[in-house]
Amino acid sequence: MDGFRASYLTQNITPALQRIIDCGVHSKYLIPSFPSKTFPNHYAIATGLYPAWNGIVDNGFYDPNLPEKYFKKTTHDPGWYLGEPVSDFAWIFRNTKIYLSVKAFKLIFEE
Predict the structure, then answer these.
(1) How far is CA 72 from CA 39, 45, 69, 95, 106, in A?
(2) Nearest 5°: phi and psi at 110?
(3) Mind telling me which GO cellular component terms the entry cites (predicted)?
(4) pTM, entire model
């Protein structure tokens, strides 16, 4: 969750999230990137690069060097996306929700 402090999980103020952790999987040592925005963090996880290096610095932004604004829902031009995914994990997750999400955002350039 964007901007959610990890220490909140140990303060017994988020019972629903605690149940998800108890029954599922969580990342104990994740260090989120800045800015605390959804898509920059998702793309940082996919590429292993901070937003300053992967090119996605906000959910929507203007680049004076390009003739258009970036919005993750409308921009499918690979020129916006710097860096390559950490690995080609498509063969592991094919037809799973994770794979379908990554594919929907066009983070997998080759199959």
Answers:
(1) 8, 16, 10, 22, 10
(2) -135, 145
(3) I band; sarcoplasmic reticulum; striated muscle dense body
(4) 0.58
Instruction: Write the DSSP symbol of residue 15.
Output: H
Contact 105, 41 (CB under 8 A): no
Q: Does residue 38 carry a catalytic annotation?
A: yes
User: What is the length of the chain?
Assistant: 111
Q: Given 10, 14, 38, 47, which residue is catalytic?
A: 38
Tell me the backbone φ, ψ of residue 71, rounded to 5 degrees. -135, 130
Alpha helices in the chain (DSSP H): 15-23, 38-47, 51-54, 90-93, 97-104
CA-wise closest residue to 79 among 65, 91, 98:
65
Q: What is the pLDDT of residues 82-104, one digit of tens each?
A: 776 665 555 555 666 666 776 77
Euclidean distance between CA atoms 91 and 21, whole angstroms: 26
